Amino acid sequence: xxxxxxxxxxxxxxxxxxxxxxxxxxxxxxxxxxxxxxxxxxxxxxxxxxxxxxxxxxxxxxxxxxxxxxxxxxxxxxxxxxxxxxxxxxxxxxxxxxxxxxxxxxxxxxxxxxxxxxxxxxxxxxxxxxxxxxxxxxxxxxxxxxxxxxxxxxxxxxxxxxxxxxxxxxxxxxxxxxxxxxxxxxxxxxxxxxxxxxxxxxxxxxxxxxxxxxxxxxxxxxxxxxxxxxxxxxxxxxxxxxxxxxxxxxxxxxxxxxxxxxxxxxxxxxxxxxxxxxxxxxxxxxxxxxxxxxxxxxxxxxxxxxxxxxxxxxxxxxxxxxxxxxxxxxxxxxxxxxxxxx
Length: 342
Fold this sequence. Notes:
The radius of gyration is 29 Å and the shape is globular. It is an alpha+beta fold. It starts with 28 loop residues before the first helix and ends with a helix. The protein has helices at residues 29-69, 114-128, 160-164, 170-189, 242-245, 252-268, 278-287, 301-307, 319-341, and strands spanning 75-83, 87-94, 100-107, 138-143, 147-153, 192-193, 202-204, 210-212, 219-220.
């Protein structure tokens, strides 16, 4: 069947075998034309498939070649460990002290979108001013003719997504929530909204502590970035807040909402809202009943309800209030334990 014009098709049932004296088979002209058209289409498809395969091979070869040739002064590149929408992430070793670091590399070609470069520079400016145990550490930034890079802390323990699937106790979940809340308190007090709180951006250290990472779409309160156009929605659909879905700017309470989704995952190993399409998913954030925890986790229900309130005015207004809410749960559990012991 032709891509632009219909091609008449014929089914050939079979040609009977016969002797050499048999009359040659006569193929009608319209059938001959159809068979020729079919052959052209098949040849075109094969040529396109071959071209695509060659492009894929060339791209993979170029990537591999790029990895071998990538040099950043002061660092020895070990391997590629990830790729984002506009950057590639490498594991590297700092030559001065052999410390393992992550190099986030942005292609600095002349065709680079200015907005992407602004966000890249902003990420360094935001994090480099922060020294907090629950925020990723930034070591260095540099530019060359071909790329820009940020050197930051490496987390061999992976991220929250890998921790959640292993299962957490209620106390472990509350402890990790408190660390994440402490990170939010630090950045919010500096007027920074993260806007992409999700398990993949909460990193795990070997000592059991966690750190908030990836400030690529973070925003400073009161700053007109001139980059969020009407209809654009930043964040990840599973963790985006109702007010963002409705077109309002993200606030501190939006970050708290996203953290509430993660808290539910930590407690149950399930997201509170699941759907087969993005449109159905974001509709659940706005209108679905808030999730109810099992009776064994009833102590955390009030905390979760406040974090996941549809109306941001009903949520904790800041991370300090959230941390107070966590303390209330711990206090309640401690008092109950004392009563049992007595």
